[in-house]
């Protein structure tokens, strides 16, 4: 393997930037960790900034950890793509600085980029829904329109998961909170509770509305929603009301969401352990590979 190692800091704390050695250092940053890339010869330059909690990784261990991180296996939402996107931007920035460690012909880098793409396509697509937004996207996949009640953190977390619908409606008390989303999504309409008529096939309750207010909203449209997803935490009787007054409307409450997320986590944990073992095997195979040289001799690439 090429002469490369990682200094992994599992923390949101930066490496101390007052050290001159770090001014041009290759440090990949996310909200959960910092990774310093360097060669074995350069490691001594960073001795003063490495802390006891940091981990120095080489060879297949360095590669396998990087693969796990870039595949989203260590992310709060397993399998997310954001960290890989951040890494590609980081690599581009290092290439612009003409960092030889990130050159186009670096075999370790080409291996990482290709392996992440292959692993995501083969093992992480549809791995499981572990958030309200991902579950709602799955439940409403055959619906063209959705209505969300609320403008708080929960509603803002959910909305991007549903943004590819033909129509997304947000009903809330403070439309200004959702203006940034309105500027981003052409298919989004925002209205207040007083002037709203629900037009979504699915109704998502992401605000502390009363049962009576929700029923009132459901009655303010000619065609009832096909399903109601209630994410309120407090006890309520909406399930019984929907069953008695809107018998054709499906209902799913917060406890069902909790149960499905927990079940998914159990199944995902088993799959992730097997995937991590497979990534380590691939990294080991890469570091111990044999290459055929054009003049006819083989050598082991270390």
UniProtKB/TrEMBL annotation:
InterPro entries: 4pyrrol_synth_GluRdtase_N, GluRdtase_N_sf. Signal peptide: none annotated. Gene3D superfamilies: Glutamyl-tRNA reductase, N-terminal domain. It holds the Pfam family GlutR_N. Residues 18-94 form the Glutamyl-tRNA reductase N-terminal domain. GO terms for biological process: tetrapyrrole biosynthetic process. One of its GO terms (molecular function) is glutamyl-tRNA reductase activity. This is Glutamyl-tRNA reductase N-terminal domain-containing protein. It comes from Bdellovibrio bacteriovorus str. Tiberius.
């Amino acid at each position: 393997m090429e002469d490369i190692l990682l200094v992994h800091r599992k923390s949101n704390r930066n490496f101390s930037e007052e050290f001159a050695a770090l001014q041009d250092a290759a440090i990949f940053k996310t909200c959960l960790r910092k990774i310093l890339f360097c060669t074995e010869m350069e490691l001594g330059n960073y001795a003063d900034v490495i802390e006891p909690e940091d981990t120095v990784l080489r060879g297949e261990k360095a590669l396998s950890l990087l693969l796990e991180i870039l595949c989203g296996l260590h992310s709060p939402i397993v399998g997310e793509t954001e960290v890989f996107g951040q890494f590609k931007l980081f690599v581009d920035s290092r290439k612009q600085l003409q960092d030889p460690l990130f050159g186009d012909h670096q075999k370790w880098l080409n291996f990482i980029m290709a392996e992440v793409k292959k692993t995501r396509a083969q093992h992480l697509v549809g791995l499981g829904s572990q958030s309200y937004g991902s579950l709602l996207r799955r439940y409403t996949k055959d619906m063209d329109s959705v209505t969300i009640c609320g403008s708080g953190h929960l509603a803002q977390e959910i909305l991007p998961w549903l943004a590819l619908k033909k129509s997304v409606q947000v009903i809330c008390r403070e439309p200004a909170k959702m203006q940034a989303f309105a500027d981003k999504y052409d298919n989004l309409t925002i209205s207040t509770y007083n002037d709203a008529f629900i037009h979504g096939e699915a109704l998502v309750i992401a605000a502390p509305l009363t049962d009576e207010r929700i029923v009132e909203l459901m009655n303010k449209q000619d065609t009832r929603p096909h399903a109601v997803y209630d994410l309120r935490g407090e006890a309520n009787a909406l399930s019984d009301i929907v069953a008695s007054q809107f018998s054709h409307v499906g209902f799913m409450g917060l406890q069902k969401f909790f149960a499905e997320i927990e079940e998914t986590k159990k199944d995902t944990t088993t799959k992730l352990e097997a995937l991590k073992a497979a990534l380590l095997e691939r990294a080991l195979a890469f570091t111990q590979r044999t290459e055929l040289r054009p003049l006819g001799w083989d050598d082991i690439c270390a």
